[in-house]
Amino acid sequence: MNQLPHFQFEITAKSTGTAARLGRIKTPHALIETPVFMPVGTQATVKAVTQEELCEMGFKIILGNTYHLYLRPGHQLIQKAGGLHKFMNWNGAILTDSGGFQVFSLGDLRRITEEGVMFKSYIDGSSHNFTPERVMEIEGAIGADIIMAFDECPPHPSTWEYTKEATRRTHDWLCRCKASAPGGHALFGIVQGGVYRDLREWSAEFVGAQDLPGNAIGGVSVGESKGEMQDVVSWTAPLLPEEKPRYLMGVGTPVDIIDFVMMGIDMFDCVLPTRLGRNGSMYTTYGRINIKNAKYIDDFTPLDPECNCAVCRNYTRAYIRHLYKAGEILAARLATYHNLYFYQRVINGLRAAIAKDSVEEFRRDFMSKYAADEE
Q1: 289/242 same-domain check
Q2: Which of 1, 39, 118, 223 has the most other CB atoms within 10 Å of its CB?
Q3: 59 occurs within a structural domain
């Protein structure tokens, strides 16, 4: 399973004071430098920006979501179009989530069995069934470079007993995914175990032993405290194979990304930069700002004086605030572009710092400016 000529990972540099490392992931569509942040394109679009703009900012890989794409427009239509890359005109790499998190967040709309999950569509109430084999079939039709195994993501809080059963099911389903995975796609396993150290260690050892092209830590950022999330990563990351990429799913803030890179994580995704941008919250070198605040009415400075993105070069806080107040679509477009660019700046800074073996200094410099209290 791990011998995929079209998918390779190599570590090119390591930090001496932390677990941070530089690497390269080779996929059929892109050579990806790690650490990497992957914008979330749930429904074949990263909300409010174009694929051309993502390329402009330097992104080489984005996410799609199996659950949403299966329900609309349907994996058969995507396959008919020639796969998701052609359907959305994206020339970089794509990673598809298995849909597990979305299915398990449905609550009363789904029923879990050993075989899989029965659930109702949030669109029209129709009934559907996801099994590991079915998810592999759907992800294969979508055609992503990296496909995620179908897992059970227990909610937080959950008892140790429930979390153990969910983790055991995740392991069983991973074996079924591995047995039925379509050729030409790199399958990543997902570590579960909630906030319980013994379950996380058990899951990390089981998933790591499957010798897959990469491994992910799931079930974080689902309601637990930041301290609990840091504990989970600190327990889990060192147990995952060093020679394989480590992906922390659904995380996080810029500070989270810096901290978890220092714990040995290579890959990240999060909806925060796009979701916050659509709601008027922008990241800056000096912390997050809410552009809707009255103090920006006549602020004719850039969103971030230290940012060189197209938004900061051309538009002021006063203008962008006006767009939000007027309900103009351009507001979300400009804010989302800037937020994604900010994340890319953080990642590029981290890569440069690891290369110079100064990642701890990079974090100190970043935090000396970045305000802890966000608007």
Answers
A1: no
A2: 39
A3: yes
Residues 256 and 294 in one domain: no
Q: What is the dihedral of CA 337, 340, 342, 348, to 10 degrees?
A: -130
Residue 103 has pLDDT above 80, yes or no: no
Report pLDDT for 374. Answer: 58
Domain count for the chain, please give it: 2
Same domain for 253 and 148: yes
Alpha-carbon gap, residue 177 to 175, rounded angstroms: 5
Q: Active-site residue 269, yes or no?
A: yes
Catalytic residue (one of 97, 145, 256, 259): 97
In a domain, 1, yes or no: no
Q: CB 223: neighbour CB atoms within 10 A?
A: 11
**CA dist 230 → 202, 217, 218, 224, 258 (Å):** 18, 12, 13, 10, 12
Statement: residue 375 has pLDDT above 70: no
Selecting among 145, 151, 269, 304, the annotated active-site residue is 269
Beta bridge partners of 110: 119
Has residue 372 got a pLDDT over 80? no
Say which amino acid occupies 72.
R
The sign of the CA dihedral 39, 61, 70, 130 is negative
Please say if 256 is a catalytic residue.
no
Task: Say if 174 falls within a structural domain.
Answer: yes
User: 339 is in which domain, residue-wise?
Assistant: 277-369
Number of CB atoms found within 10 A of residue 214's CB: 23
* pLDDT for position 99: 80
Looking at the structure, tell me whether residues 304 and 357 fall in a common domain.
yes
Task: For residue 115, name the pLDDT band (cuts at 50, 70, 90).
Answer: very high
Residues in the chain: 375
Tell which of 217, 240, 269 closes a domain.
269
Shared domain check, 95 and 15: yes
Task: Tell me the C-alpha to C-alpha distance, in Å, between residue 175 and each of 143, 147, 162, 187.
Answer: 21, 14, 20, 11
Average pLDDT over residues 311-328: 98
* Cα 41 to the center of its chain, rounded Å: 10
pLDDT digits (tens, 9 = 90+) for 244-303: 999 999 998 999 999 999 999 999 999 999 999 999 999 999 999 999 999 999 999 999
